[in-house]
Write a structure and sequence with these properties.
Blueprint: E1 3-4, H1 24-28, E2 31-35, H2 41-51, H3 57-60, E3 62-64, E4 70-76, H4 79-84, E5 93-98, H5 117-120, H6 128-144, E6 147-149, E7 156-157, E8 167-171, H7 177-187, E9 192-194, H8 205-209, H9 211-217, H10 224-243, E10 250-256, E11 262-270, H11 275-278, E12 287-295, H12 299-302, H13 309-333, E13 336-339, E14 344-345
Antiparallel strand pairs: 1-4, 2-5, 2-6, 3-4, 4-5, 6-7, 8-12, 8-13, 9-10, 10-11, 11-12, 13-14
Helix pairs in contact: 7-13
Length: about 350
């Protein structure tokens, strides 16, 4: 029987085997998150809380993901246990996913995906509750440098931690375009502001006469008097809006790196629903989201399990600039930083 890992916050030492441990036969039949021994339970618990509100893996040893799915653990495996559970060396710590088997059609021949699902599930891709739970496991593996051993085929999904280069900052502070441009340009000289909109002449004249409605339903729902009153109200609103100052509620800052792609800083107001924001004292205020994203020169390469060398070289050059830009941004605006998988990031690690 695989023993549960100890929960003493002072030390992350393996506990002795306990009665509530899961049998290796059960582990062999389920999807497993394989965890480096250097990553303790508190780290995994914190990451899971970012995605699953009010969860408590640390104290309870399990997290309910859906009606029929949950994560339990961690479990400490001996070398013999690992062999019996279908866990390759050198992994000796795992978390177990219990979920119903829900599969859709097999992947098309030659289809590739960044997380390796087509490779690991050639008979049918997981979806619904199983698919969502497995995506969480793969995201956790990417963040902690772990792997996912899938049930059935016993294939190993080992996502590349360096693949996640984008960041999102949620803050209560709006930085004016020229202020943010100055911050971004210090890390990425040559960045430019992109706030220009497109001219719009408004709806066609037929929209005001009721002609379009007549064409659609065969008659007009408004009398000539109703149309006159509606137009007068609309004209009054237009005059009021035109008298007010222009308000920018979204803009972008762009830096073109040529063969290495483009980095964008996208700014907009938002109603953030991330669990990480829900715990902030300013969660009920108007929020500003800053997205620092890389547009790769070949978007298709970003979705490959093993992207070509040219893509990896471009990513290696751009990723440090994105991290430094994100840190400079959050130090100016405050707030929280999330990675591509919506896990919280300490700004001082960027």
């Amino acid at each position: 029987m695989a023993g549960l890992w100890g929960r003493d916050k002072q030390a992350a030492e393996p506990a002795a085997e306990v009665e509530e441990g899961m049998s290796v036969q059960d582990l062999a039949a389920r999807h497993l998150l394989l965890c480096p021994t250097t990553v303790d339970l508190e780290v995994v618990d914190t990451l899971v809380r970012d995605r699953v509100p009010h969860s408590d893996l640390y104290d309870t040893g399990e997290v309910q993901l859906g009606r029929h799915s949950r994560i339990t653990g961690p479990y400490q495996l001996s070398m013999e246990d690992a062999v019996d559970a279908g866990v390759p060396m050198p992994w000796t710590v795992c978390y177990c996913l219990e979920a119903p088997v829900e599969r859709e059609d097999p992947p098309l021949p030659g289809v590739d995906d960044r997380d390796g699902f087509a490779y690991a599930f050639p008979e049918g891709l997981p979806w619904r509750e199983e698919g969502r739970a497995l995506q969480l496991l793969v995201s956790l593996a990417r963040r902690i440098g772990g792997a996912v051993r899938v049930a059935g085929t016993l294939q190993l999904i080992q996502p590349d931690p360096e693949r996640a280069v984008d960041y999102v900052v949620h803050s209560k502070t709006w930085l004016e375009p020229d202020v943010l441009l100055g911050i971004v340009a210090r890390e990425m000289p040559g960045a430019v502001l992109a706030v220009e909109g497109e001219d719009w002449a408004g709806p066609p004249a037929a929209a005001y006469t009721g002609e379009l409605l007549v064409k659609d339903v065969g008659r007009s729902a408004l009398s000539p008097g109703d149309l006159q009153r509606l137009h007068a109200a609309a004209d009054e609103r237009d005059r009021k809006m035109l008298a007010e100052d222009d308000v920018i509620d979204g803009f972008a800052i762009v830096k073109d790196f040529g063969a290495d792609g483009v980095v964008e800083v996208l700014v907009h107001l938002t109603d953030a629903d991330d669990p990480t924001v829900a715990g902030q004292p300013w969660a009920n205020e108007e929020l500003v989201t800053y997205e620092v994203r890389w547009q790769a020169p070949d978007p298709a390469a970003r979705e490959m399990r093993y992207p070509p060398e040219g893509y990896r070289t471009s990513r290696a050059r751009v990723a440090p600039l994105i991290a430094r830009t994100t840190r400079a941004l959050v130090e100016a605006a405050g707030g929280i930083v999330l990675d591509e998988d919506n896990f919280g990031v300490d700004r001082y690690t960027l």
